[in-house]
Structure formats: structure tokens, C-alpha cells
Design goal:
Layout (H helix, E strand, L loop, with lengths): L5 E3 L1 E4 L2 E8 L17 H29 L2 H15 L1 H14 L3 H18 L3 H22 L13 E5 L4 H5 L6 E6 L7 H9 L3 E3 L13 E5 L4 E4 L3 H21 L16 E6 L5 H6 L4 E6 L1 H4 L8 H15 L3 E5 L26 H6 L1 H14 L4 E6 L5 H21 L9 E5 L2 H5 L1 H5 L4 E4 L1 H9 L17 H16 L3 E4 L7 H10 L3 E4 L4 H8 L4 H13 L3 H12 L4
Parallel strand pairs: 3-4, 4-5, 5-6, 9-10, 9-16, 10-11, 11-12, 12-13, 13-14, 14-15, 15-16
Antiparallel strand pairs: 1-8, 2-6, 3-7, 7-8
Helix pairs in contact: 1-2, 1-5, 2-5, 3-4, 4-5, 11-13, 13-14, 19-20, 19-21
Bound molecules: phosphoenolpyruvate and magnesium ion.
Length: about 575
Amino acid sequence: MSPYRHFEGIPVSGGVVIGMVFRLEPFRTIVEPRDIPDDRIEDEVRRFEEAVEESRRQMTEIRSRARDDLDDEHAAIFDSHILMLEDPLFFKEIVDGIRREKKNAEHILSVVTDRVAALFNKIPDQYFSSRSTDMYDVANQVLGNLLKVRQHPLRQITEPVIVVSHDLGPSDTMEMDRTKVIGFVTDIGGPTSHTAIMAKALEIPAVVGVGALFERVKTGDTLIVDGTGGQVLLNPTPQELKKYKDIQIRLQEQELSLSVMCPLPAETLDGYTIELSANIEMPEEVQHVKIHGADGIGLFRTEFVYLNMSAFPDEETQYRVYRQVVEAMAPKSVIFRTLDIGGDKFVTGLNLKELNPFLGLRAIRLGLANPELFKVQLRAILRAGASGNAKIMFPMISCVEEVRTIKKLIEEVKIELKQKGLPFADNMECGIMVEIPSAAITADVLAREVDFFSIGTNDLIQYTLAVDRVNERVAYLYEPYHPAILRLIHRTINEAHRNNIWVGICGEMASDPITAILLLGMGIDELSMGPIAIPEVKRVIRGIRLADAKRLSEEILQLNCATDIKRMVAAYKRQFT
Ligand code: PEP
Ligand code: MG
């Protein structure tokens, strides 16, 4: 196999696609050079100056919004952007470039930005590489004003393509129109990055962490992406095309045969039923959730609603989105997880730059640091609860004090809503995500404070094993079957039940059918996963006995290492394939 045509990465969203490459440049606006006649040069310079002025105005507006909604520290991020816009050297270099090269302002801006950013990138220091990201942010802002189009390149695609890029943010994924983007591949990234989760939600076959594909492809190349097996083939031979077309047909047949599972309950052969719910990121996914036969929504990652907004939406906007989902799912329940920003998820305009973002001011910490902003979301969720069956849960809980503070804020919000005479769900179930080891270890304490637990294994694995979930270089250590993980899950389930609350799992572990049996054996009450995974998990659960699942989990909990556990799981798996 040729190393230049065959790539292997981490399969993050299943299915096989064959199609044309769209190479998504890191510099997000594609700018062609255009000649400017001598007598129009000064007009072109003026056009550039006006675009800079407009960008400065927009940045100042964003900065004051950040100051109002957050604090001075976050607003200061935009000070540096404004300073860059005002940097006489940068500014002069572009004006001089337009006059010297007699080319359009957009083109000169992109060339200068690339050059300066490359200089920053050469310096092996994180501070300077993040300066280059800032440069691109600022340049894109000016470009948007020059071009008078504020469109993401992914919105300009007109025919079906496979997007190849060095990296993709979750917000890029949100820009993908599923009828146009049929697959994507990135050089970097790990299995539970939010980009990967988005790909799965959109049911777009995807492979991440392939290494060095981006530099080898051009727009128009043909690509095969096997999002199930992790293979990527550039400009395939006729034999390779035939092989993957056959695989495509087989996968489609499998999907069809699984569709009979959708309306059936997740009931074992000996009559024990658990709930299979769906994880969603966008309200539009409700249709998928229903088609795949979910018992409810076990995790609505609300931060995705905000991803491309420059500021937090107000209470009414949030309320409308949440109510729409609650009404569409009623009488089934919807669990809203409050904002989980930070780590690998960030919102435009709230670009939180931290050296250690996964351990920083993210998720509930951000909410509690900005209680007024957090209360806007609490009010919107409580109000939406009046239209159906809603529950609320909080991400990244590390100690009981956080839960107690949240409960106080909820009480304040209820008083405010009563005063305003707005209807809301007074007795909404409140739960927490158990995704930090300290929460799992103190599950007995936390269980006395809340109505349910939802175990977030994606983060629990990351924090327990000290493995960055989006870093492909340490992906080999990201091990759901590590005994430490299974013991923490087991402990959390036991403590929940001892305190009479229910417990689910909403991390990616829930979507693996054999792992689902193991979790069922440990006593889990609910499994929440990407909607597409539900029929297969259901098929496997309907083919076993609870007693056997219990036996399997007891045996596995006795084992000392992931290698032995995986061997036992593999032996068990053979019965189902
Ligand atoms: C998790 O951590 O397992 C989880 C479900 O939350 P997220 O993936 O959004 O961090
Ligand atoms: Mg998490």
C-alpha cells in the first residue's frame, strides 16, 4: 500500500463515502489576486482603510458586549485584536503592498497575514502560535468587510464533497450542509473531540487524526473515506473503488435490517428494560431521534446552539429553542445540560484563551463565575419545562459546594419567574454529570443532593487517565476498559442506587453495544448515545439475559488490566457477530 495514497486515522463517524475532495484552507476566506488599474489604486487603498475602520467598530462592539456580559478579563482579549488592527506596521505593509503590487486589498491582506503568521508559528512557544490564530481572526474580520460576504467557505459548496482540513472546529462542523458535505477527514483530532461528536450527530462519515493528508490533497481529488474502519484512500484504483462500493452496499443493507429494532423496547430476554436515549447538539436532530426509536433525549449539549454567535442569546431566544425541543419530544423527556464551554468547545466572541483549557474555567465553573449569565439559561430551561417533560443537568461538577450554589441560584430564578408571572416547571428534576474523578469518588455525598446522575465517560476517561481526549498522539492511552474507569462507573451506579436515584451514561461508551451489556450488568438505568447507535445497541440488549450481563460484569470487574478485559469482551462479542 502506498503511504502517499493510503492513510489510517481514528474512525469517528461510521459509513463509507466516495467523493470529491474540498480542501478547507486554514485561512478561511479564499482570495484570488486581481489586477488594479493605476487610476484605481488609491480607491483600493481607501476601500481597505474603510474595511479596517468597520472591523474596528465591530471589534469594539464585541468588546463592550464581552465586558457587559462577562468581565474585563474576557473583554481584554478583544483589546489585543483592536491593537492589531491599529498596528501601523501591519497596516502600512498592506497599503504599501496594494500600491506596489497593484493587486486587490483582499489578496495583499491574505499574503501578508500568511507571512506574519508563519513567522509567529516558527517560534516554538504557545504564546506565539496563539498570536498567529489571533492574526487570522483579525484578518478574517477585515476580509469579511472587504468582500461584503460573511459566509463560511463551507456554505459556498454547491456539489457533494468530502472536506479535508488540518483541523476543524465544532463551529466549522455546524456550517456543514449534509446534502453537500458527505464526509470529512482531518489531520489532527481525537475520538471524542466535539468535532467528532458533531460528525456523528450529523451522520457524516468521518476519520480524524490521519496525520498528513491535508498537504497531499487538492480540491477535486477523489477520496474514499471509511468512517467505520478508519481508512482513507486518495485517488483510488478501480479495484479499490469496487471493494469500497461493495462495503458501502453491505453497510446499507445492515442499516436497513436494523431499522426493525427502532419501535421496540430495549428489553432483555428475561424481561428487564432499560432506557435508550439520544444525545443531540441541535434542535433539528429531534427528527433523527424519533426515527431511531429513542426513549427520550438524555443529553442536549446546549452550547452548540451558541457556537456561531458573537454573544450569548437572550432568555427569549434560548427559551424558544428549548421549548421547541421539549414540545417536539413530549411526553418523552429532554435533559438539558447547561453550557459546557471551554476545553475544545468555544464560542466565537468568547474566545477564552487559557494554557490548560481542559482544567480551566470551563463548563459549570464559567457559569458560577458569571451567575447572571448562567441564570439567563436556568430561566430559559425552567420556562421550557412548562411545555412538556424537561430535566436539567450540570457539567463538570467537582464538589458538593458547586451543587449547593447551583441549587441556591435555581431558587432565586424561581422567585424571579414567579414575580414576573411566567409559567415554569417548579419541580424539574436536577441532575449532575459525573465526569470528574472527584465526583465519582464522592458519589455517595453528591447522590444525596440531586435527582439523577449521568456519567460523562468521555471526560471521566480523560481526567482519570490524564489523557487529552483530542490529542491523537496519546489516543492509545485513552482506554474505556481501564479497570480504574470501570471501577469508578461501578461505584457511581452503586452509590446512586443506595440513595434511590437513577443513573445513566451519556459518554461515547454507551454507544458500544458490548460495553452496553457490561453497563447493563452493572445496573445502569439509562444509556444515552448518538441516535444512529440506538438500533444496534437495542438489538444486542434484546438478545441477552440480564443475569448473563451481570455475570459478565462481575467477571470483568475482577480483572486487573484493560488487555485482559478486552480479551474477555472480544470473546463475548463473537456471539453477536
Ligand atoms: C462526556 O464528557 O462524556 C460528555 C458526555 O460530555 P461532553 O462529551 O460534551 O464533554
Ligand atoms: Mg464532558
